[in-house]
Design brief:
Blueprint lengths: L10 H10 L6 H11 L4 E4 L6 H12 L9 E4 L3 H17 L5 E4 L5 H7 L6 E4 L1 H10 L10 E4 L2 H6 L3 H9 L6 E6 L7 H7 L4 E4 L10 E7 L5 H11 L4 E5 L3 H13 L4 E4 L5 H12 L5 E4 L12 E6 L6 H8 L9 E7 L4 H9 L4 E7 L2 E4 L5 H4 L6 H9 L10 H44 L5
Parallel strand pairs: 1-6, 1-7, 2-4, 2-5, 3-4, 5-6, 8-13, 8-14, 9-11, 9-12, 10-11, 12-13
Antiparallel strand pairs: 14-15
Keywords: ATP-binding, Helicase, Hydrolase, Nucleotide-binding
GO cellular component, one term: cytosol
Organism: Faecalibacillus faecis
């Protein structure tokens, strides 16, 4: 097992490690840091909570030459909140190296003021793709051509939000010997042409998602059937007493609707989604960080890297569209030495995603909420999981169609098909015989009735 001392980072980086209380590198840090120092291109696939941010920040900061007044590294994130979080992590390094200049470049702020600040170029740029493109290519105030390192964080979200064209434009202005690192929970097919275009023999590092599905989280399924999901939500909220609970919905419009309904019902709730104006988002994040809300309604933007301390409960109004997003959501709770509970409403359309998550190592409890109490319902789909017993007819047919002395590949499947064919024929024959008997019996009964009507006692 490697130690941070093995990486031979600069002294100020080691001071940051001490301040953060890092004891030993996480699996992704152990693999990524040496490769960054060797100037390799990297594709890192990992979930939230793996220590990914410092896996690239530590080696990048260690290589910055503060004597050069130019941009040396550019790091992008798909949202202002994620960029601000990375920026705050990076600012820690400036405490121990005051000459280090790190700039946060995001939308929602005065453009001219941002341009004026760039009269002195930063060493490290952290921001959103659109604003970095704007200030570097359009305003030409940010000189990114000198950067030797480019990091695309949360690449799948970057693609989903439609920022890949901005990333492409920014990367196209950088040097040919650019070191590129891409970090993502998943690598969608639409992202691969971009990776192939800019990356030279990248090393792919994938951290098994089983390692990061927090063991401290209890996973509970609640079948909604014909119930209104908002009513189910209210019942859950009446039963639990969280420190902080995040309520996830799949769409921004759904988040707004749930937030409005809860506020009308007297709850003080926060909301996080992409439709909030920049000023509203800043104010909301400040209030959330000040623990002003016990409940926060959010889209997946809150599950992907935004740290909200003290989350004890998660409620999923629907299962997310991607199974891995469930891991991000549930991983908001149960951090460190704390425990968490994740409640998920589901119906039959979610069975496929549930099965995928179970194969990843998540153990769900199937429960019902009744009279303010959670009751364990045992296994889901009991009828499907029950082993069907052979009928007497199938046993008889199987005895007739014996196993061949010399078997060939696929004989079991072939024999099973033969048995099924014979059983079907036998059943059809039995049905025909039963119909014939019923017709005969009906004819006999009709004949008896006719004779009785005629008064014939000799029948």
């Amino acid at each position: 097992m490697a130690t941070f001392q093995d990486f031979k980072l600069q002294d100020y980086c080691n001071e940051v490690i001490k301040e953060l209380g890092f004891q030993k590198p996480t699996p992704i840090q152990e693999k990524v840091i040496p490769l960054v120092l060797k100037n390799r291109d990297i594709i890192g696939i990992s979930q939230t909570g793996t220590g990914k941010s410092h896996a690239f920040l530590l080696p990048i900061m260690s290589r910055i030459d503060v004597n050069k007044d130019c941009v040396q590294a550019v790091i992008t994130a798909p949202t202002r909140e994620l960029a601000a979080q990375l920026f705050n992590n990076a600012k820690t390094f400036t405490k121990y190296l005051p000459e280090l200049r790190v700039s946060l470049i995001v939308g929602g702020s005065d453009r001219q003021r941002a341009v004026n600040k760039l009269s002195t170029q930063p060493h490290v740029v952290i921001g959103t793709p659109g604003r970095i493109k704007d200030l570097s290519l359009d305003a030409q105030a940010l000189q990114i051509t000198t950067a030797k390192t480019f990091v695309v964080d949360e690449a799948d979200m970057t693609l989903e939000f439609g920022y890949l064209e901005d990333i492409d434009a920014v990367a196209g202005k950088m040097s040919d010997d650019l070191q590129m690192m891409v970090f993502s929970a998943t690598i969608p097919q639409n992202l691969r042409p971009f990776l192939k275009k800019y990356m030279q023999s990248p090393v792919t590092i994938e951290i098994d998602s089983k390692l990061v599905t927090t063991a401290n989280v209890e996973h509970i399924l609640l079948a909604t059937k014909h119930q209104d999901r908002y009513d189910v939500l209210k019942k859950i909220m009446a039963t639990i007493d969280p420190y902080i609970c995040i309520i996830f919905a799949n769409k921004r419009t759904e988040v707004s609707k749930i937030t409005r309904q809860l506020r009308e019902d007297g709850y003080k709730v926060g909301e996080i989604h992409g439709d909030l104006e920049p000023r509203e988002r800043k104010k909301m994040m400040r209030q959330i960080n000040n623990n002003e809300y016990q409940y926060i309604v959010a889209t997946d933007i809150a599950a992907r890297g935004i740290d909200i301390d003290g989350v004890s409960h998660v409620i999923n109004m629907q299962f997310p569209t991607e199974p891995d997003f469930y891991i991000h959501r549930s991983g908001r709770s149960g951090r460190g030495n704390y425990t968490g509970i994740c409640y998920s409403m589901y119906d039959t359309t979610d069975e496929k995603n549930i099965a995928i998550l179970e194969r990843k190592g998540i153990e769900f409890k199937n429960m019902q909420l009744k009279n303010g109490q959670f009751a364990d319902l045992g296994q889901r789909e009991k009828r499907k999981k029950r082993i069907r017993q052979q009928t007497e007819l199938e046993k008889q047919v199987q005895m007739i169609i014996r196993k061949p002395k010399k078997v060939k590949p696929g004989y079991k499947k072939k024999r099973k098909y033969q048995v099924e064919q014979v059983v079907r024929k036998q059943k059809r024959a039995m049905i025909r015989e039963d119909i014939r008997r019923q017709k005969k019996e009906r004819a006999r009964q009709a004949q008896i009735a006719k004779r009785m009507e005629e008064g014939n006692d000799n029948w």
